[in-house]
Amino acid sequence: MPPRTTIRKEEWERRLREVQVTKDDLNRLIMDYLVIEGYKSAAEEFSDEANVPPPVDFESIESRMVIREALQRGDIEEAISRMNDLNPEILDTNPALYFHLQQQKLIEHIRHGRITEALKFAQDELAPRGEESPEFLAELERTMALLAFDSSSSAPPTISELLSPAQRMKTAGEVNAAILESLSQGKEVKLVQLLKLLCWSEGMLAERADFPKIDLQEGLVATGRKEATATDDSIMRD
Fold first, then answer.
1. What is the C-alpha to C-alpha distance for residues 235 and 215, in angstroms, rounded to an integer?
2. Which residues contact 90 (CB under 8 A, 6 or more apart)?
3. What digits encode the pLDDT tens for the residues 74-128?
4. At what angle are helices 165-182 and 76-86 packed, to 10 degrees?
5. How many degrees, rounded to 5, is the angle at CA 67 between CA 63 and CA 72?
6. Between β-strands 219-220 and 5-6, what pairing exists: parallel, antiparallel or unpaired?
7. Whole-number average pLDDT of the chain
8. Which residues does residue 215 pair with via DSSP β-bridges, in sequence order?
9. Which residues, given as ranges, of the chain have pLDDT below 70?
């Protein structure tokens, strides 16, 4: 097994400075974030000021945000209607997404105490789909279990979480990703992808060397071990 390398902070910073990141690269990352997160006005202003063409039509950003807002307030019918206006193929070609929207509609019936409507909706709309998929059936059973408890506080966390705002956010996120995919746009912010790659790369390198880690709040920090002159700088050599 090769000896473990210690990379000093000064050497690490020098190597980082050698990495060329252009202003255009940074501008595209910012635009990607604004578009995917739905900041239409900010994206328009940034496009004009930085001369960065948007990857999608700005109007599609507003449409996504209207749909997301409808889902976050529990108006599933409004969201489905606007999705079909935007692109009816999204739901036609994504049965899992359509089921999750219908599941969310069932959750909203239960949330507001519309028990009769909930039972009929589950039987007419969701039960047939549950017969086609074990996964759908399990989700339907979990949702219907809400009816067995007087309040969400008395239900197990795996059941009560369906009534939390996070459940609406989860459904809205799934819808947002599907719309972006239909527009041939990435489903996840590239900055998030880069951070995931950074964490993975640090983990791989940590198996072979001690080096300054990146702290997203504090910036570059020293190695966990006492800094010392590297006895083997093979990793840093070109």
1. 22
2. 83, 97, 178, 179, 182
3. 999 999 999 999 999 999 999 999 999 999 999 999 999 999 999 999 999 999 9
4. 10
5. 145
6. unpaired
7. 87
8. 219
9. 1, 216-238
Between CA 118 and CA 104 the distance in angstroms is 11
135: which 2 tokens?
A: 């996964």
Residue 131: how many other CB atoms lie within 10 Å: 11
For the chain, give the number of residues: 238
Tell me the CB-side half-sphere exposure of residue 134, using CA atoms within 13 A: 0
- CA-CA distance, 53 to 47, in Å (whole number)? 6
Strands 209-210 and 5-6: parallel
Residue indicated by tokens 């400075």: 17
Name the pTM for this structure.
0.72
